Structure formats: C-alpha cells, structure tokens
Amino acid sequence: MGKGKRTRVTLRQVAQEAGTSASTASRALAGNGYVAEAIKARVVAAADRLGYVPDVSARSLKGRSSGLVGLVVSDLRNQFYAALAAGVEGSLAAAGHQMVLVDDHGSDAQALEGARAFLAMRAAGVLLAPVGRAATELLVEHGTPVVEVDRRSGARGCDAVTIDSERGARDAVAHLLELGHRRIAMVLDETMWDTGRNRLKGYRAAHRDAGVPLSRRLVLDLGLRPADPGADVAAFLDANPGVTAVFAANNVVAEAVWQELKRRGSAVPRDCSVISFDDLGWMRIVEPGLTAVRQPVYDMGRQAADLLLARIAGERGRAQTLTLQPEFVRRGSTCAPGGTARTAHPSPPGGGAARGVGSDVSA
Amino acid sequence: MGKGKRTRVTLRQVAQEAGTSASTASRALAGNGYVAEAIKARVVAAADRLGYVPDVSARSLKGRSSGLVGLVVSDLRNQFYAALAAGVEGSLAAAGHQMVLVDDHGSDAQALEGARAFLAMRAAGVLLAPVGRAATELLVEHGTPVVEVDRRSGARGCDAVTIDSERGARDAVAHLLELGHRRIAMVLDETMWDTGRNRLKGYRAAHRDAGVPLSRRLVLDLGLRPADPGADVAAFLDANPGVTAVFAANNVVAEAVWQELKRRGSAVPRDCSVISFDDLGWMRIVEPGLTAVRQPVYDMGRQAADLLLARIAGERGRAQTLTLQPEFVRRGSTCAPGGTARTAHPSPPGGGAARGVGSDVSA
DNA sequence: CTGTTAGCGCCTTCAA
DNA sequence: TTGAAGGCGCTAACAG
User: Fold this and answer.
1) N vs C: which end of chain A shows fewer Cβ within 10 Å?
2) Is residue B174 domain-shared with residue B239, that is, in the same domain?
3) H or E stretch at B194
C-alpha cells in the first residue's frame, strides 16, 4: 500500500522481496506444503508490503476451475428472483465463492449465451432457473455441476430445488372452495414452465377433490410480458361476471389482478376474493392484506447453493430434487362469496395459519 | 456436441482436428491476423464439432483483464439495489461483459473483501455503492476503473453516478410546508452516508427557505438494521404528538412508518401526511397512494455501467460525477394538516406532477 | 524444508 | 499466409 502501482505485483516479486523462490512464496501464501515459520512470515510481510493480490486466472489455468459460480434468473427486477439471488449469494459468499449473475429475460437464447460464458470462465458450478433445457444440457455435457432452481427443465444430470407448486395451488384453491366459491378464476402468465403448469394442475386437482366442475373459460393466460395485463384482466372479468374469486399464479399476475379490481371499484373480498401464489411485502401492507401462498424463496436460493457447493466439493451420487413446501397464509382478501359469513379478520398482524411447512427429498 | 467429455477441449485439439497449427486456429477463431478462408472455415467447423469453448483464464493471463465487472451493493433484497443491479446487468450484458455481484450487507469489511476478490479476478472494472472509502481506494490504487453509484465515498480517482438527494428532499419537504405543515418529522436510518446526510440537508434547507424553525427532536434516526423499527417509530410518534407529517428518507423507513401509522389507526393523510424518498411499486398500490420522490434507479445503474464501460475502453480524462434528478410524485398521502383544504386527489392513476426531471454533469 | 523444472491454454512476435 | 517459439502467473512434481 502506498504508491499507486501500474504493474501488478507478481508472486515472483514477492519472493524476491522476501529473498526466497517463487515456489516457497507460493507455499507460504497458500498454506500448502512445508515452509519454515520464519520464511513464511517474511513472505507474508513482503506480500503485504507490496500489496500482492494472487491472480485467479493463473491459478485456475493450472487447476481445474475458477471459484466463480454462475446464476441465471429471468428478471432481476422481480422481487422473487432478487430474493433468490440474495439467498444464493449469501451461501456462496460464506463459502468463499463469487456469484456471476446473468439475467436471461426469459429468453432461451440468452440463457444459453450465459451458459457459454460460464463455460468460458470455467465456472465451478451453475445455478439456474431454467427457461429451456439447452443451457442445462450444455453445461452438464461439459461436466459443470448444475442445480436448477424454482423450475425444472427436464434435462438430466442435474440437481434441483423447487417449490411444490401443485400442492400450494391446491391448498389455496381448496380454501376458496371451502368458503363456498364455485366460479374461481385462475390467472397466469405462462404454462410452458412447470411452475405455471403445476399450479394449474393444483387448481384442477382442488376442483376435482371437491367435485366442482371445471371450466376452461375460467383460466386466463396473460402470457409473459403482456402489453397491458390490466386490460386483459378487465376484459376477462367482464366476460365472466360470475367469478367470485381469483387465484393468481404469481406475484406479477397478482399485482395486475389487484390493481384492476381496485380500478373498477370491486370490494375485496366482498365482491371478489383474491389469492396470490408468492407472498411479497406489499401484500402484507395493502388493505385488506392478501391471502397468499408463501414460498421460502431466499431459503430456496440458499439450499440450492448448498447443494451445488456439495457437488463442487466432489460429492457423487444420483441427481437429487429437493422439494420445498409453501405455506398458506390467510389474510383479509378471502371470504365467502358475497361477503357473507366472513370469517377472516381484516388483516391479522402476524399473518395467518401455517400449513405444509417443511421440506422433503425425493430422488 | 454429442458425447459427454471429461477433458476440456483445447485450442490445440481444435487445430489438430482441423489439420493446422494452434496459432492459425487462434487467429481463425479470434479473427485477428491473416487466415485463408478455407482454413478458417475448417477451424470453425472443427471447433464447433468438438464443442470448443475458449478459456478466459488463459486469455486474461496473457492479456490484461478478464471481461468481468464487479458490482457491490448493500442489500440485494432491497428492491432499490435489485433494480440498480438490473440496470447494471442490462448495460454490461449488451457489451458482452459478465457481472459479478457481491452483497456487502452494509459492512465495510465485506465490501473490501469483495474488492480484493475483484482484484484477484482481474476485473475489468468495478461498480459499487460505497459503504466506506477503503474498497474504492484499494481498487483505484491498483488501477482498476471504479464508478461509485448512488452514494459517494469521497475517495478520489473514480467516477460516480448519484441522485440529487438534497434537492429531492427539499422539494418534498417544501411541498409539506406549502400545505401548511409546521411540525414535520424526518425519519432515516443512517447519516453516515451522503444519501442520508444530503436528504437531511434538504429537509433543513426547505425549512430555512420557508422560515420555519427546526427542531432536532423531529429527526429520528433508526440506524441501519434496527431491531424493531416499528417500535422506535411508535415511541417517537408518542413523544411528538404535534407531528402532522413524516418525511421518510428511503423505502425501508417509509415502510416502517406506514405500517406503524396503520397499526395505530392513524388516518393518512388526515391525521398524518407521509412522503417517501424512493418510489416502490407498493406505494402506488396502497390506499391512499404514497406521495414519493422517485429515483431513476434502473437508469442510474445503466448509466453507471456505461460510464465504466467507457473507462474500460480506455477513456481518459478527469473523474466525472453524474447527478440524476429525482422526480416528485404527488399521490394521496399528503394534504394540509388536519385534512382541511385537501387538494390531493385520492390516488391519481398516473402519478402526479413531475419536477426536476433530467440530469446534469459536473466535474 | 527449499529451489528448480515444467507446464496449464492462449496469444503474439518472429521467421519462413 | 502459416508455423514455431516464448511467456503470461502460478503451482505441482521432483530433486537437493
């Protein structure tokens, strides 16, 4: 530290400064092999004095990989993915790894580009919320450990951590059915990923369980990045005046639904009950609070990273899928149709009843 | 593509497959130097066939730096930082760079650790929301281009992109004063960074401008990561019953204030007006909508990244500070004290009056 | 315990 | 237009 340097300090220079050879200096700094205490101290002091920073490029050129771990998400501005990334980062940082973050904006091509970049940088491993199987397959083929998060692409040879979408959706819709709703709409923005598909499955399963007939008309798929989701929801509600409750498949959809209901002056839950899959901060803040299926997002990130770290550390064995259970949180946005026999408290401070907490492993 | 490979494909292997030398293959793939078209095609085909991926470690060992760019933020779960990161990523990805994201959790030590990691990976440049000057100084000293975002540490030798906190705060508080408020509280969670400090300055300046006396009692500093911000706000409000308006210094504080007001049954804005510095999605969703100082966060990330890219590309010249102007958005959470002469519409769909849009550069 | 030797994969002179 | 040679910074053998 002191004078600004133009040339990076190399190990050789440190060794010279300490009056020893490069290999000894290497051993002293890395802590491998035998080095006399005295020399070691001299080397460390010299490194310190010169502001030495080891070059990971050189290091990973020798060894196997850089310490970098890639993460691909579909929309960093979506709190869901931000929380996921935060969880991943926390776990990786604790293990001394760096996280390279790529936003694929839901595009298969961009995910693949990201994967290629990870390959090029010899990433130690990659976590991704898949948008297709190409990226995963490319990485696996090259021997890079991969853990899929949130969704599964169907590619083989990688671990995964997901949330039980079907169960979460089934519980939510069952709640509405129990309250007496018979015309329950489901709004989603994609069915090409297993998250959307499984939530739809859960919606259907709940109906079957209750012996309530299904109608295709009650399912609205906005598609990813709808131009004007509010308008689509509006048109849908106009076309289906009998709807007394809406199940929104994720936080983005939930926001669109909520805003449209507010815009048209519908009273929630009296005129229409609402449940969101995914529980964000604002859902606790609005009045009434939104009944929601909470996903342990941050934790999912952490656990996925841990799984990956284990693979990086050399753990063998079959690919595992960790399925996390969501938690049903009842707030004020759901009640019996027409507002009769309202059992929900307006907005309980603490949240609501927990259900299905925990997680289980399946091969 | 095809058979899973255990050993990474090297340039030499590609060359061999194409029946040429490594140097020629290098030129063919990199596009440097002269290569016969026929040979070039053969090499490209071979590379493709073998699934060749260049090794950036080797490449950056030769050259100067890896194509990696570091970003340090203080809390990825905070939507503000997530949006910032998204902006940065967008710009970097477009330029073919990868973003390495580090969350320092507001800790100087962790930021420094991140900086060291960036140095070790020979990052092409680094963007950071500084928590101290140590990280910036270390990087600058080693010749790594740095752009500070959102805040400035005071370290020299780096560019910066910030938002005019003082002006944003002054405008907001002036609005409250114009409405007739005289006991306006300001709640913040830090004054060690220039964001908090400057917002406080703006708060004071507005009072001075209006000739309204200031009282230290009206400023509540919760401190970063308060154990129970709600309780602190509650105690503060109890101790200052005369307060008719609250100016919250950022989205975290705004949420705490909002929740506490709701908890105690205060009617906003009749009993208490509220303004937030930083405009998040939920502030548009709640009833009434929150009057807010909107920051062009995503854009700040983009612009900061662009500035850094220019430096990486070799742009010389003095360090620049780009100051972005916030936009005052009036919604329903502000009115005259006591709810008299209420001029605000309950919750205008589009937002409110814009003010101070644009940006300017200063050396 | 320490120094010498030999590359990791790539790119960049330099000759041919 | 192409190939051979050398070296980026580091570390893992191998002597000494």
Assistant:
1) C
2) yes
3) helix B194-210
Residue-wise pLDDT for B190-240, tens only, equals: 999 999 999 999 999 999 999 999 999 999 999 999 999 999 999 999 999
Q: Which residue of A has its CA nearest to B98?
A: A100
Q: Show which of residues 106-165 on chain B sit within 8 Å of chain A, judged by CB atoms.
A: 110, 116-117, 119-122, 140-143
Does residue B195 sit in the same domain as residue B308? Answer: no
Scan residues 27-86 of chain A and list those with Cβ within 7 Å of strand D. Answer: 29-30, 32, 52, 54-55, 58-59, 61-63
pLDDT at A5: 45
Q: Residue for token digits 């297993």?
A: A194
Cβ-nearest to B53 among A1, A79, A119: A119
Same domain (yes/no): B75, B191: no
Nearest nucleotide over every DNA/RNA strand to the B59 CA, judged by C1': C10
Domain match, B49 and B111 both? no
pLDDT in tens, B289-341: 999 999 999 999 999 999 999 999 989 999 999 999 999 999 999 999 987 64
Residue A218, phi then psi, degrees to nearest 5: -85, 0
Q: Which residues contact A25 (CB under 8 A, 6 or more apart)?
A: A11, A12, A14, A15, A18, A43, A46, A47
Please give the structure tokens belonging to residue A174: 């069952």
In the numeric block, which tokens belong to residue B80?
């503000």
pLDDT at A65: 80
Element (H, E) at B14: helix B11-18
Range of the domain at B331: 165-295+325-339
Query: pLDDT tens digit string along B51-103?
Result: 899 999 998 888 767 899 999 999 999 999 999 999 999 999 999 999 999 99
Chain centroid offset of residue B49 CA: 43
